[in-house]
Amino acid sequence: MEKELYCRDVGLQCEFSACGKTEEEALSKLGQHVLAIHGVKGFSKEFYDKARSAIHEGPCDNRETEETISEDCSACCESYFDCDEASCC
Q1: What are the residue boundaries of the structural domains of the chain, listed by start?
Q2: Do 34 and 88 meet the contact criterion of CB atoms below 8 Å apart?
Q3: Does residue 50 contact residue 58 with C-beta atoms inside 8 Å?
Q4: Tens digits of per-residue pLDDT, 26-77?
């Protein structure tokens, strides 16, 4: 079963759905979206915890949600939430 996470699940007024085969894949897709579309500069541990706890299992609807991120954040960390710092970027 795939993992799904909505942007609205982390408190943003947005219907974007991040789907992945794993939790990390769904989190990474949400991170890319939030950086690119919502102008967030980085993620706090609280944001990460909220996102991780909001992931649920379900069939994703296979729509393409590919979005680009700015190059300055693309190498920020392997997963956009994979940080020890207060903010990745």
Answers
A1: 3-74
A2: no
A3: no
A4: 999 999 999 899 988 888 888 889 999 999 998 876 554 444 333 333 333 4
- Amino acid identity of residue 32, one-letter, is Q
Q: Which of 79, 6, 86 is nearest to 42 (CA)?
A: 86
Lowest-pLDDT choice from 7-11, 17-21, 41-45, 83-87: 83-87
The two tokens of residue 23 are 């939790």
The whole-number pLDDT of residue 71 equals 38
Strand boundaries in 1-89, DSSP class E: 3-6, 17-20, 56-57
Cα 55 from chain centroid (whole Å): 10
Q: Are the C-beta atoms of 80 and 38 separated by less than 8 Å? A: no
Say if residues 36 and 81 touch (Cβ distance below 8 Å): no
59 with 17: CB under 8 angstroms? no
Burial grade of 12 (CB within 10 A; 0-12, 13-18, 19 or more):
middle
